[in-house]
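Following up on my earlier thread - several people asked me to post the actual chain instead of describing it. Fair enough. Here it is, all 207 residues.
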Amino acid sequence: RGDAYDRQGILPALAALKDPRSVPLILAFAMRANTHPDARHAAVGALRAYGSTAVWRQLVDTGAVRPELRGALIDLADSVALSDARVSAALGSWALELLDSDEGGENLRAAVRLGARLRPHDAVPVLVRFLSDSSQGGAAAVELVRLTGVESAPPLMPWTEPGRALAQHFWEAWLAAHGTRYEVVRPDVGERAYQAWFRRVLERERL
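Reply from S.P.:
Thanks for posting it. Predicted structure:
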C-alpha cells in the first residue's frame, strides 16, 4: 500500500465527498505512526472541510490522547471549531501548552493567535515568556498590546532581535508590577492601543 505520505493525494477527494463513513478512516490515517507530518496536516484539513462541529469534537477527542495531532488542530482551527465551547476550550489550552514548551514548529503563529483569543487572561504571562522566540516573538508582542491596551510598549519593531529583547524587558517588568491583577481590555480598546503603538513604531523607523 506504499508509504503513508503517498496517500495524501486521496484526501481532497474524500473531503469533497463529505461522507460520514470516511471520518473514522481519515482519523485512523492521521493517527498512524508512519504518517508523515504533512500528510497528517492534510488529513486534519480534509476533516475540517466537512464543516461539522461533530467532526471537530471527534478531532479534539482524538487529540486529547494523541498529542501529535494537536499542532495541526491548532493550525487549522476555523470558525466552526471556535464556535463550539468544548472544542475551543481544548484548542486554547493546547495553544498555550505549545507556547510554553520547547517544541517549536510551524504552528506557533496560530498558537499565539488562538491562545490570545481563547484564553486571553491566561495567555498574557505565557506570551511574555514567549517573547524571546526568534520566529514568533514579535507576534506575541503585538498580542500583548492588544490584550492589555498598553500602548506605551517600546516603539521598536519586535520582529528584530534588539526589538524582542527590549519588548521582553518591558513586558517582564510590567508583569512583575501587575502580577495577576491585570485586566484584559475589550477588543476595540486593544485595537486602538495597537494602532497607537504601531504608529510610534513606524515613526521611530523613519528616524
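The chain is about 65% helix and 0% strand. That should answer part of your original question.
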